[in-house]
Amino acid sequence: MPGQATGMELAGNQPLVEQASALGRFLTPQSIAIVGASADAGTIRGRLLDYLIQRDYAGAIYLVSPSQPEIRGRKTYPTLASIDAPIDLVLIATRADATLSIVEECARVGARFAICYSSGFAEAGEEGEAEQRRLGEVARNSGLRICGPNTAGFFNARDAIPATFARNIDGRRAPIASGRQGPGTVSIVAQSGGLVFAMSDRCLDEHGLGINFAISTGNEADLGTLDFVEHLVGDEGTKAILLLVEALKDVDRLPAIAQRALIAGKPIIVSKFGRTEAGSRAINSHAGRLTGSSAAYDAAFARHGLLATDDENEMADLAAAFSLFPLPSGNRVAIMTTSGGAGVWMADACEAAGLEVPILDDATQAALAKYVPSYGATHNPVDLTAQVTVNPLGGVTESPLVATLAALHDSDSVDAVILIANMSDGDVLAREQQGLSALAARLRKPVLLYSHAPASPKSLELAQQIGLSVFASTRRVARTLGAMVCYARSRAEMTADPAPAQPLAAQEIAALADGLVEYEAKALLARHGLPGGDEVLARSAAEAVIAAREIGAPVALKIQSAAIQHKTEVGGVALGLEGEDAVRGAYEKMMATVGEKRPDAAIDGILVQKMLKPGTEFALGIVRDPDFGPLMMVGLGGIFIEILKDVTVEPLPVSRDKAMAMLRRLKAWPILDGARGRAPLDVDALAGAMEQLSRLVEGSGDAVREIDLNPVFVYPRGEGIAIADALVVGRNEPHAAGDHA
């Protein structure tokens, strides 16, 4: 039949390449069946066939339509079972209510993969969610692997195989949208069908990047994002993987996959959606998916070397940088500019991004002086001035722009170079194309281009031909280099997690699972090397007086009850008490007040606690995330945590080194480190306590839901820490922790 496969060759006489992993045949199928096929290329069902024909798909195409004897000159089949040949991939372009029965038929005939395009599943309510679960059950019970539902499918640009209805790859559109330029260096996985192909266009439009694979996973009844990421990590042609996700399933696989990607030097660049209440609500309505804690995702991404991004421009910029340039060996940046003001602006952006713009060494400045006029600058930023690019200094035969750029590139005093020039008309790059191409062919560090006037299409095209790329703003340049430095550091610092913590005693695990009030929690913490203060639980006024006498004034009294988390709200805290009468009176008053306000609460007693000496307040805690398990949170207390939200989060395990890294990420780190004449705090003791807390929780299995240590007083260096209040919410408790002082 016209256009039908007669062998296993593509249009260019290149064999279909089956990938090493199981998903290789999904992305390079040797036979495709379309259920619900149509001749109308204006419909979703019709586009599936139309795009395969446009791309001269060389595999076998089987069209399933019980009502039409032929479609576009091709034979049709009434059912999948009537196809007397193996089927790699079935494209199901039918209504949601017909999808399950077709998937079941796919399993019966032994098809290997299916794509379910239709929406109307988990995003449509309980009935649709149940139907989606049944799709997953078919996959688990049969071995059929399913992509979707509610997906746009995929485009394999390398082998020109479209299994999608997305208009972005329609060959009748402009080349920039059709992907006709061929395969490239980037692969994209997104749960949103619209975004995966839009991101493909953006990478091509802004940086000339071709795409290897664009994959939409949809609702993920079976195949999920991490299945495809795992495959792409092993794909030789993919240099960078872009992820656009709302939530991940099977997140326990992330650490191993991410480590493989780091070892391979293949960055995973991710944007996580649903960070706001409105965003989460929108996701649940269109995909039936709960988004998960953004703080937990950010912490897990950072822990495992994924690069989190804020927007589509940043994703495209990073994809270009990692595709074109080697990694920087440090954070020192040389800025070369033909505009002094633009150079200053770029220097500000670089330092704001955590990059260093150092004064160049004498040897490098001497090499630059041959090309830079006396009214320019050689220190960094290097101001070549606009005039010299047009009228070189006397005696100079080579291009001053290329020679200066090469000298900076070859200097051991910098790790990356930024070239700033006016590229609004294409003349600069056209004039310097030969020299820049020679430099681009031998790059050993990143060289990023920035035009302080909007770059013309001609400049963008020339930069891509040279092997470089133009970035659209000072912030985007600096942000890109900062991410490259961060990724290089992640690769250099790859270490195995510490040895697993020893399991706690069975009675301690049982106690944690039931939850611990303050006096119980602090006693357990003390046994595990986490210090509090002197304290005694009193069950009568007389016991409180004796305890206060033994501990020494001043003391604090705190009500102790598993039913009371907010002690101050029920009159359950008294501070700074001195003398027997004060202690006795406070005890009796507290018991009466609490009894009146919470007559239902079982009271264990009142904790008599030595008033701790003032210190810098920290909040330290553990929360068990449903996706990533236990996470540690640390931040300065008081206004820092309540107003400035200055906290850092890290998945367990947290070693001492990880704890120190968490503390350094706080905005308030300079205060901890003794800024402006303040005494440095004992951050070593705090980091040690964080490590101990991590090991305690690791050793308790899943017994702990939350631990709240707030405040923790941190004293000047060498004086240690003290836990002033503590609460443990266990697995068996129905309630969650909150403010409990």
Automatic annotation (TrEMBL):
What's the family? In the N-terminal section; belongs to the acetate CoA ligase alpha subunit family.
Ranges where the ATP-grasp domain occurs = 522-558
A GO MF term? acetate-CoA ligase (ADP-forming) activity
Q: Which UniProt keywords apply?
A: ATP-binding, Nucleotide-binding, Tricarboxylic acid cycle
Record-given protein name: Putative acetyl-CoA synthetase alpha chain
What span is annotated as the signal peptide, if there is one? none
A GO biological process held by the record: tricarboxylic acid cycle
